[in-house]
Amino acid sequence: MATDFWASSHNKRWIIDRASLKQARSEDLRYVESPEHVDFLNIYFANLIAMLGKRLTLRQRVIATATVFFRRFYVKNLYCETDPFIVIAACCYVAAKAEESPVHIKNVVSESRLMFSQEGYGVKNFPSDNSKLAEMEFYLVSDLECDLVVFHPYRTLLTLCGREAAHAVVSEAGEVGVGIDNGPRYWGTGEGRLELEEGPLQTAWHVIPPPPSTLHSTLLRPKTDQIRALNRFIINDTYRSELCLLYPPHMIAIAAIYLTLVLNDKTREAIQAQTASSTPTPTPRRSSRTNTSSVHRKLAAAPQQQQDFVGFMAGLRVSLPTVAMIAQEILSLYTLWERYSDAAPESGLGQSAVGDTAGDDVVTPAFLTQLLLRMREARLADLAHPASAQPMAVNKRLERTQAAG
Amino acid sequence: MDAVEKANAERQRRWVKDQKVGEGTYAVVYRGRELATGRKIAIKKIKVGQFKDGLDMSAVREVKYLRELQHPNIIELLDVFSSKTNLNLVLEFLDTDLEMIIKDRSLVFLPADIKSWMAMTFRGLEFCHRNFILHRDLKPNNLLIASDGQLKIADFGLARDAADPGYKMTCQVITRWYRPPELLFGCRYYSTAVDIWSVGCIFAELMLRIPYLPGESDMDQLKTIFRALGTPTDEEWPGHTKLPDYVSVGQFPRTPLRDLFTAASGDTLNLLSKCIIFEPRKRISARDALYHPYFFALPYPTHPSKLPKTAAQTAAASRPPDEVDGNVDPGGGAPAGVGKAAPPKKLKRKLSGHDLSRNIARKLDFTAS
User: Fold this and answer.
1) Catalytic annotation on B137?
2) What are the residue boundaries of the Cyclin-like domain, all occurrences included (chain A) (predicted)?
3) pLDDT by residue (tens digit) across A30-47?
4) Which of A84, A155, A215, A227 has the most other CB atoms within 10 Å of its CB?
5) What is the 3-state secondary structure (H, E, C) of chain A?
6) What is A5-150+347-403's CATH topology?
7) B3-93 against B96-295: fold identical
């Protein structure tokens, strides 16, 4: 979060174009039956990072950083040539250090072992030796080219939505030396902030509020996994895809705000009213509707001036087509995610068979772990007996993989 | 060899490692050069040591910030490459540091020289603070001096982001003599003001030529500070008695800075006093310091190339010890020595080579107790 984004390594070296990203995955795609499987792997690994992070009691930002490290590592490496599980552990370990909340290497090893060995994941051979993780850390840091400062959308979200002030008052009473300058840190003076109520803001950052519009229910149908609560954050959700490699974080934040405004009943109506008549006045329909649910009543109780949402988006002076593009990507991520399930271990095997044959069925972690193993074997076979006449030297990373088990 | 390894090998080939020049807690430093140009560089090889416990936190911090920060007054990280099992940081080569210059008794500092070093320090620090990075280990031997006289802030092994309000930070940072009182009282929420205190101590040290507040233990450090500046009252520093590790170390009267810094100008003392205000919130910011009248008054800061140099530096530059006559000192204020009269301008500024053995590697020494 330090430094100026525009001058940062994040902006200069780690926002890549779609073609490079495609190039990075092209080898992996040769070993899967359907290109979607790679996207599922992206979701799967991000979930694992989030869960490992929770076990290590890492803050959300550390988890996000770990995920970005993971994505960056796989811009340069292949899923089928590495052991993503130990990479995940290394990402969490390095991110914790880079974000100033270090955890001991032993804890990372033991928690990873514990978690990955659960039946649903079926990773039997996570090394118990600290040095394996430390070695992976070294490869990770050198492939990251030591660029460890990562920017995230959270700060933009808070700054744009006027919640920073509320956060700034957390310091302990009576403490001196709190004089940290909270001045215009990322987005200038805070003038023209979007005043979102707690509900919509939480949508963008936190929990999807209960009122079920049809769109909501199709997009965000309750999932049956234990970490359901964690999954409900739009920005957090974006880390399940590769968006963080393609777009600067502030654009992702704006796309999340946009989605929130459109998905939230109240704000959507306000926007519709606004676009229908050019004068932004609250319509009577809105007030009648707010009485329908207790949640809405509570929100309406807060005296709120009708805001110019359209003007706010326009006033950001960012490329709105890009925002719309990101929003589309987030939506398609949700569509895909609907078919992914961190299902209970017992159903894992059965479903994996189904998932294998019919692309439209639920994909489980166990299936993805198996898929990964098959990819790795196929890759090994290919390298040993290249189908093309071109002989390939046995890759160093493959040795790493094998050494790691 | 895949593309990633190839790129790495290519980077590695750009640099040549020569002799080892020092060793620190987590790294070994080599002198080297750029193959194409012959430019002198330092290679800091981070020990990964059989991969026992992973990368040292200091190494992570240093690498993390140096990769992002580019400023004339901050040491430049030229490149990073990995070799077998080591990470190598390629840094610009710097001949000496401010501590060696201060300790070199053959050198005489003019007020304009001190002003020049202070200006460069504040510029570098302002850049860090503008980017919300706390250095947390400023001291003369972390201020390196390039052959052209430019001062560069180095050693980011303790640096971190200014934490979000409400997140605790450790108070076990900054070498004791340069540590501000709020840290000594165990304050866990602090700000860029901690670095300003350190700069104030360095400022005083440049004038005195000995460390200004050399406490022998953490407790003694508080006593030393209060002996020099007076015990703060609750008005001067509201709430300090409620800090976690607050202890009363006795009442000392306030003595005017003028009594110790007899030769300093009014502006000088005004800036110094603003750097070492007890209440952290009232301490001057790096940005405001740069706008302080001190920097605009005569004598103007010495041009970096004309600053006093140690013998090691001169030897490195392989130039004859030049009789520096560029220090325009139009009689504005006596030199801020230890009450000594100003020596003639044509004084030979470098004589001894006794410190030749010391070098950049000292930068790895963290005495962060």
Assistant:
1) yes
2) 47-142
3) 888 888 888 888 888 998
4) A84
5) CCCCHHHCHHHHHCCCCHHHHHHHHHHHHCCCCCHHHHHHHHHHHHHHHHHHHHHCCCCHHHHHHHHHHHHHHHHHCCHHHCCHHHHHHHHHHHHHHHCCCCCCHHHHHHHHHHHHCCCCCCCCCCCCCHHHHHHHHHHHHHHCCCCCCCCCHHHHHHHHCCCHHHHHCCCCCCCCCCCCCCCCCCCCCCCCCCCCCHHHHHHHHCCCCCCCCHHHHHHCCCCCCCCHHHHCCHHHHHCCCCHHHHCCHHHHHHHHHHHHHHHCHHHHHHHHHHHHCCCCCCCHHHHHHHCCCHHHHHHHHCCCCCCCHHHHHHHCCCCHHHHHHHHHHHHHHHHHHCCECCCCHHHHHHHHHHHHHCCCCCECHHHHHHHHHHHHHHHHHHHHCCCCCCCCCCCHHHHHHHHCC
6) Cyclin A; domain 1 (1.10.472)
7) no
